[in-house]
Batch of 4 targets.
Target 1
Amino acid sequence: MSPMRALRQLLHPAGRHRAPAGHGLLDEDQLDGLLEDGDAEENDNRYCGGCERTTFQRVHADGSHTCWTCGTATAGDQ
């Protein structure tokens, strides 16, 4: 799929896979509220000791993070 087509699908989905009405993107206030309540977790690129490189990881409310690639959990901000 071309990058332009992917962008078009993201902005104006069509077909049976489109999001139901009323389920749009979150605005910044809604996202901040979910992150503060712990209902959503932040994601960031961080160093993973298991993969021995920087990978995309979910960051938990307590500061620990888990690698999406290998599942290695790291305690606190290091």
Target 2
Amino acid sequence: MRKPKLIEDYNRLSYDAVSPLAHSVVRQTEASLFVADGRSLTKALATAVAALDADVAATDYPTPAQTAHRDELRTTVLRELGRLAKRLNLDYPANEPALLSSGLTLAENGSTGGLTQKQPAPRPSWASTYSTAPSRAVYW
């Protein structure tokens, strides 16, 4: 039987999903009855995601320097998510209710690697018969 573990590498997480996931993890870990002292475990993550949210809300059209700073803040949030997952994996080995109550994702087959990217679906057999390219007809 495999031991459940949380994913520790969230680098493949899409840009728009970082902040909502981090807020959800902070809220669920703090409220969890299975995780002892969840508020102190999520303090660094809450601070990092608050800084990211403040930076995103500050400007609508960021300059390249602001975008670079935003990327650094995003990296900090991802690193804190990984640290929290690693800490929970160490503190609660094979305790699936505690791990799930944190709001983080369980890894497949006990691996703690990154999020797996799904492969695109194969082309259907009829796709070679019908073209999906726009028509090259010219209308006068």
Target 3
Amino acid sequence: MKDERSTRRRILAAVGVTGTIGVSGCLRLTGSEEPTSTATSIKDSDGDGVIDSEDYAPRDPDVQEESDVENDDATTADADPTETETETETRTEETAGAASFGDDFEDGTYDDTWAVTRYHEEEELEESGGVLRYNSPVAATQYASDMAVRTKATIEATGTHRFEATHRVTHTEYDGIPIFRVFATGTDSLVEIREHRWSSKDRFYVRGPDTGKVRLDESVDDTGWMEYAMTVDFDENVVRSVSRDGTEYDVDVSFAPAFESYTLGIGDGGGEDEYEAISVERV
């Protein structure tokens, strides 16, 4: 098509020159005769090099044939998927987020790192003196919607991740205080370890979305600081191990569906507890 248009433009150029010479000659030689109509018959209104009589759109310099319009429509249609792909790639990069996470609660504010997604009016969350304090009165929230605190950062769920925290309860009786809560992004599907010491319930357990609660030991009755850790293999969808204050628990708690990415959560318990540090690392 390009060769055809090129030939057409060369013919037009030649005809245009010849016509001009002919008209000029006629005017000079005869004087009183009417000018030749050749110039009108080869008019090119849009200046695209194709005469009007052969131009599909004589007033549009970008269109010479009907196929040009069809090609433009095809090009426009192809542009939309490209934009969609770019948006998808951007969302994927945002979802991937950080490969690791850590907070030592030294800057005196939690809302630069943590987002409170819900809370009860009697619950409290405060960061000061290198400690994050969470207080949820049992009576106020036992049948209410407890506070949910999650990281603003979203972490890509690939490989094996080790979660660590320095944590303590401030009372020896409490209703289900979680240490780690790992939420699949955009859902309430989670993996967690939790201390539960209330009435006849006395258990330290790990829970997956399709396995329920797996008891590991008795709950802690010490208000001193303790070191917790949990190892999760996101490629195999399995909690591999849990430790509390030096005691290792070999576990094999599977979960489904697989997590593509996650946020780390704390809170959502009945009682008062504190964090001195919390972190996530790939291992």
Target 4
Amino acid sequence: MVRLGNYEPDEAAWDRIVVSQSVLDACMAEATRGMAYAESISPQRTGDYRSHFKVEASTVTLPAYGVRAAAELSNDSDHAVPLEFGTQPSISAGSYRPGMRAQRILGETAAFLGGSP
């Protein structure tokens, strides 16, 4: 008869794994894949928005789980907020300017990375 022992997780080892270089490398690779997708669906009129994507190594602290390795995909173009969230129509000096619909480039990229349609 095989005798089974009691499993006790090694939380200190797990805490080292989730901030390890291997996990960070995987996060950076996935964020870089996301950046390529975001660039591919970005407007191309001036190229400014498309050229301002960046991926940075980071950590995130999750309340129930602690610190984890992470990678952040962002865009610091002046066009980022209007493209992501859209704009309201406005009337200025008697002329009407229609609003721009939200294009949700980073939102669409998150869905792409997460496997959502």
